[in-house]
Amino acid sequence: MDNPTLLSRIRARFPQAVRSSTEFRGALSIDLHADAYADLVTWLRDEPTLRYDFLENICGVDYLGRTPRFEVVAHLVSMQHLHRVCLKVGLPEHNPTIASLTPLFATANYQERETYDLLGIIFTGHPSLTRILMPDDWIGHPQRKDHPLGDEEVAFTFNQEQIYARKPFARE
Amino acid sequence: MGIEEKAGNLGVVTTSLEYVVNWGRTNAMWPLLFGLACCAIEMMGAQSANYDLSRFGMEINRASPRQADLMIVAGRVSRKMAPVVRRLYDQMSDPKWVVAMGDCAACGGVFNNYAIVQGVDEVVPVDVYVAGCPPRPEALIDGIMMLHEKVMREKISGVKERPITISQPLLQVEVAKKHG
Prior knowledge:
The complex is a heterodimer.
Chain A: H1 3-13, E1 18-24, E2 27-32, H2 37-46, E3 54-62, E4 70-78, E5 83-91, E6 97-99, H3 108-119, E7 122-124, H4 160-166
Parallel strand pairs in A: 2-5, 6-7
Antiparallel strand pairs in A: 1-2, 3-4, 4-5
Chain B: H1 3-10, H2 17-27, H3 39-47, E1 70-74, H4 82-91, E2 97-101, H5 102-107, E3 128-130, H6 137-152, H7 171-178
Parallel strand pairs in B: 1-2, 2-3
Helix pairs in contact in B: 2-6, 3-6
């Protein structure tokens, strides 16, 4: 299996799916439309001549200021044909929703939960899309680029009185 | 020939109950067995042969909070870990003390972000703060010595002493107030 063959086969099977594709140092990455994503991955996994049967990782990216703002990146590996492909799906800021890969690959479960927890991307069809790293009562998604970086003002000698006055110290 | 004779020669020894109780508490202060981050490695170093915390009767780390007197918070406390640390503290039996070991436990250290509690004193009341990133075993032992002195000053009523406040404000504070 090589990159042009795979790309032409995907284009032949799903003519509307591929938005663009790039190749960097022999690694193929394909930008997809969100609606064809799950069907395409199912086909890549089950087609006997392809057999991309290992989901290496799935994660999210926040490109603040770009449209579409979010992106979900999945790396698939074919153990049989020793080939790797990177799938990218751009998601709009107002509705970052994409189909879940958990029904296809069990390993996607926790990684999609992490992507949901930290970036707020909704995976439809996921069996239990709940927070995994942050506490359950956490508000917001901290890996988004517009999330504030610092948490508390740093106390120096000139301002420690004001800061310590409103800091919630623990009691016995 | 025995201890009776020796003690007999001493006559009557008088001391205060307060002193004896505090002496007993300082000389068998068992820490709770838990470490949160890299400071725990230094804490282990302090307990091993070179630094030998067992000189102070602290060689046993109790794995159960019911049997521990001292909580050494060795490392950064994440927001998700904070309820667990508080629960462990609540499960410890009185009297109990807390040492915040290292910059992260004392004030958040380099992790000024959403995930880390900015000083474990938001979660549990801290008796001694040990500075350093991480503090060397000597620094931890110094902090524990400081805690022992504090325990020796405690009253028999169980009232802990109030935090030490600086009566004379620091020079920087004066300068900052002058310039608004």
